[in-house]
Amino acid sequence: MKYRVLIEQDEDGIFIAYVPELPGCISQGKTRDEAINNIKDAVLGYLISLKKHDEPIPPSIMELL
User: Fold this and answer.
1) Greatest CA span in the chain, whole angstroms?
2) What is the span of the domain harbouring residue 41?
3) 20: left (phi over 0), alpha (psi -120 to 50) or beta
């Protein structure tokens, strides 16, 4: 599955990454690459938790096209 990741830089220069299709799935990093790696881990944990609790997995952006 592929999800859209949005990255913004805050006023302190920290990169914030989040996935709009996965509410609350957010991470950060000192660099853009670090934020991307961290959000990948966050998405994996998010999806594992949904599956563990028998919650529906939101469709990825690719599934909607």
Assistant:
1) 38
2) 6-55
3) alpha
The 10s digit of each residue's pLDDT in 33-54 is 999 999 999 999 999 999 999 9
In a domain, 65, yes or no: no
Distance CA 21, CA 59 (A): 8
pTM greater than 0.85 (yes/no): yes
Strand-pairing partners, residue 28, are: 16
Q: Is residue 62 part of a domain?
A: no
Q: Do 14 and 23 form a contact (C-beta atoms < 8 A)?
A: no
pLDDT digits (tens, 9 = 90+) for 18-30: 999 999 999 999 9
In this model, does residue 63 exceed pLDDT 80? Answer: no
